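Tutorial, part two.
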Amino acid sequence: MDLMLAGAGAMGSMVIGLFFLRFWRTSGDRFFLYFALSFLIEGGHRIYASLEPGMSEDSPFHFLLRLLSYCLILWAIACKNWPRKKAVE
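Running the prediction step on this input gives:
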């Protein structure tokens, strides 16, 4: 049952990442690229964590991957809301 739930979470993260990747390709906005990378990293992490039989999720590697994923989301939001310089005419 645990593997099934982990697989469902991984599939959901990967699908969301692919949707954001598609939005990035159509709009060219880096906001969507950062979100896509974040969700793809999270999905890959879930797959890796469920396939390693003796791996505990308390290891620093798991925390660093999650930190990277969440920092990408925060960076995307910060870049989107950062004031831009106006073009000099």
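The radius of gyration is 16 Å. In part three we will examine how such features are distributed along the chain.
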